[in-house]
Amino acid sequence: MREFELLKIVEELFGCEEDEELRVPAGSHDAAYIKFGDTYLVLTCDTVNEISDFPPYMSAEEMGEMAVAVTLSDLAACGSSPMYFLSSISIKEADKDFFKGILKGIRNACNRYGVKVAGGDIDFAPHTTIAGFAVGITDKIVTRSGARPGEKVYVTAPLGKAQLCLEMLSSGLGRERLPYPDSLYRPIPRINEGKNIARFAGALTDISDSLAVSLHQIAESSGVRIVLERVKLPLAHLTKYVDQKKSLDLFLYGGGDYELIFTADDRAAQKYGIEIGYVKKGKGVYIQDEDKKLQKVEMKGYSHFDV
Amino acid sequence: MREFELLKIVEELFGCEEDEELRVPAGSHDAAYIKFGDTYLVLTCDTVNEISDFPPYMSAEEMGEMAVAVTLSDLAACGSSPMYFLSSISIKEADKDFFKGILKGIRNACNRYGVKVAGGDIDFAPHTTIAGFAVGITDKIVTRSGARPGEKVYVTAPLGKAQLCLEMLSSGLGRERLPYPDSLYRPIPRINEGKNIARFAGALTDISDSLAVSLHQIAESSGVRIVLERVKLPLAHLTKYVDQKKSLDLFLYGGGDYELIFTADDRAAQKYGIEIGYVKKGKGVYIQDEDKKLQKVEMKGYSHFDV
């Protein structure tokens, strides 16, 4: 979790720079909101690289698609409509087919989500890296800090599939035998879901590191406690392959799913998410078992260093 | 120059995507212009890394400053006002002081140019890399394709200083003995110059790879020939240290200066630039010696691989 220590330095240096125009600055949400005429521009950047993000057997096209998906996921977490994408691509050598594959992946993903490719930059480096930058627009600000006691907590789909597959690969299973290969190789940003959810959600964010990390970020920025209900967590997709304990671990701490997590008190929320817990006064993140006993959920998850 | 081969692939895949809204798309200029209400948003990204861009003895703060400078230089090349900066920073390990140095450099440079830091992303990788993204605004589109026969060619300052210093370092000279250390360690984006020049220039771009590369890009996109006049090139800052031939080589093919190059027929241009040649019908880039003999200027320059 060394990344979080570094994020503290970011906050120390840039944290107080909010103003009338830059409404949600660096470090405090998935993306920055900027007042621009009648609307907000939403700006974000995200990087994927072959050391920490590309699983074995990933094709160049899938790398390009992934770069778009993880960057747009930040915009989905703001309920915004993605408009433009740019990327800085670093590759080892001028391998035309490989480079073309990455670009095709970027183009296809951008076409799929109605996003225009507005520019890019090429660099050479010992490892393939794609830094993505996206611009979205929205009329409304929704962040991690709007969770209120009494709301329920929802997630857009069952979690842990990408991490399960990654660990299966590490233990020697081939790509073709993975149960959920698309979770790992072709993550999907929840753009339409984000736009709908933003209309009624208190807090909204995406899950890139882990559910636990996202919940801690919501709890801390909103000044609330979040309690997960063990009995409500959908784990069947995992218990088919691993035991109960490991399934829970993957659900809470696995990375790479790029689903949205949100809090809401509206029954309409059921349409867009699976209820997994609730918000109350206090602080921290807990999980409640069937006997109502509370256990702490740690702030940990997929780290760029851990895999 | 393998980068240019890759740029052809970019053009092949994305080249025709210009439309009413995305006015100057990926690959055709330093940055993309996007019609947004009454104005244009200008979007760009640029990456610097320790393998190809950071000279020996560079401090973490200077790395951060450089990332901002080279990205904003693209916006200067559009005559736009830079507004927001984001960066994806990859570092080897969670070295707090090093990371803080990079961020301070980013903050200081952004403060200096009146740019707000709107976000960022941290990643771990074997080599330090900073991918910068910037958003500017402007009311007018100026690109590489507006050069017209009869115009003169100007550059904002004498060139070759960064490359001279880099080569001096390679041959064993210490940083403290370099004649132009700031050219190498603290490049300055020509933002105010760009805004002024955009009012009257035919074509405008910045020099990142080399004067030769930028001139070829202007000549090709404008469908004109560019002729440099040997006698007009200011070389005294170089001939103090190397011979005439090497000085000319550094001026034409050296990288890292981040000055602006533009074409104009206005006498006002003299205020912002040094006249170095002229535009005529035809194609290609040539240099004319005192006897009016023409020699080809090659499309080459500092490549990310060459140093």
Tell me what the structure shows.
The structure is a homodimer of 307-residue chains. Chain A is of the alpha+beta class. Chain A folds into two domains: 2-138, 2-Layer Sandwich (60s Ribosomal Protein L30, Chain: A), CATH 3.30.1330.10; 144-296, Alpha-Beta Complex (Phosphoribosyl-aminoimidazole Synthetase, Chain A, domain 2), CATH 3.90.650.10. The first copy, chain A, is 31% helix and 27% strand. In chain A, a hairpin with a 2-residue loop joins strand 2 (32-36) and strand 3 (39-49). Chain A starts with a helix and ends in an 11-residue tail after the last strand. The mean pLDDT of chain A is 89. The interface between A and B is large, with 60 and 60 residues.
List the defining traits of the structure above:
60s Ribosomal Protein L30, Chain: A, 2 domains, alpha+beta, 31% helix, 6-stranded mixed beta sheet, homodimer, 7-stranded mixed beta sheet, 9 helices, 307 residues
Mean pLDDT of chain A: 89
Largest sheet of chain A: 7 strands, mixed
Q: Write down the overall geometry of chain A.
A: globular
- Rg of chain A computed from alpha carbons, rounded to a whole number of angstroms: 19 Å
Q: Supply the number of structural domains of chain A.
A: 2
CATH architecture group name of the largest domain in chain A: Alpha-Beta Complex
CATH topology title of the largest domain in chain A: Phosphoribosyl-aminoimidazole Synthetase, Chain A, domain 2
Largest interface, counted with CB-CB under 8 A? Answer: A-B, 60 and 60 residues
CATH superfamily of the largest domain in chain A: PurM-like C-terminal domain
